[in-house]
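Quick illustration, no need to memorize.
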Amino acid sequence: MLQFRMALNCGILGLPNVGKSTIFSALCSVPAEAANYPFSTVKANVGTINVPDVRLDKLSAIFMPDRTIPATVEFVDIAGLVKGASRGEGLGNQFLSHIRDASVYAHVVRCFENADVVHVSDKLDPASDIETIDIELALADMQTAAKRRERAEKNLKNQAEKKSAEFVISILDKIGPALENAQPIRSLGLSDEEKAAIYDCHFITAKPQLYVCNVDEAGIKSGNAWTEAVKKRAQSEGTEAVCICGKFESDLCGIENPEEKKAFLEDLGLEETGLSALIHSAYKLLGLRTFFTSGKDECRAWTIRAGDTAPKAAGVIHTDFEKGFIKAEVYTCEDIFNYGTEAKIKEAGRYRLEGRDYVVQDGDVIFFKFNV
């Protein structure tokens, strides 16, 4: 049976030597060259990992299914970008296409001191590092905008295309001044109609961005002055900032026993790994939600967008489910955790039948009825 999954694709970018490849390797358990010199990443590394979700673990413990299938997220480690990357400086320019393909990108910012790890600018200044990347991404988008304007202006001569071309040009007129000031397109509050009109441009700065503060072990829990500055900036931009210690995540990755891993986190006073924090932030930023299907055959996590109705959620599993949707039998994760069985959920009056207009909630457990 053909199935469709909504995949989260996260690009990891930043200056050279900020720890992107170390973090990528730790998160994905995929080897990526990490060295103490710029441009050790000469090609984009790709890794797909399971999304940690304690709710899915609990559901599996209750239903004891033949298989448990979590949602997945794909990380793409992109070569370090430097000043002038949009003009071909360094190796980063050739990888801008990988950023364009990502759903969201994580901007890794170095927030630790280490004399043995060189900084591309010979000084530790997160604000300056962020500005360098912002400028290069804006310059890359300016090039894209210029090409799109050229195409739109040609379409002005075609009566059938004139109206849509004029609309595109009006949007580009709004975008241009912002990019010239290194202001990202996502900050302009474009309407859904405007976004759709320029979707084919795949503007990088139109994509959601979150910050990843790469810290040393001393900064994992409490952070430092640099992380506070990055978090303050993230808040002003309406986005997220998480702290990750690449070395710690690498050590944690090497622990296979779940209980030992849990104890390792507790020793540092942490509730979740940097991986979990990053994924949860990305989900929040993109407005993604998770629902579950559970039974003896399998327990599975499915990813949808906030506001999706029951038929739309059914279509994530299979298009036939959406086409022939009849109803959805629904209860929440908390219901099954509290009552223990579906029979007891029904006895408590918590088992619901929902129709086509039902908006699926994060943590719903659903059984779809359909007819094709």
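Confidence is low (pLDDT under 50) at residues 1-5, 31-42.
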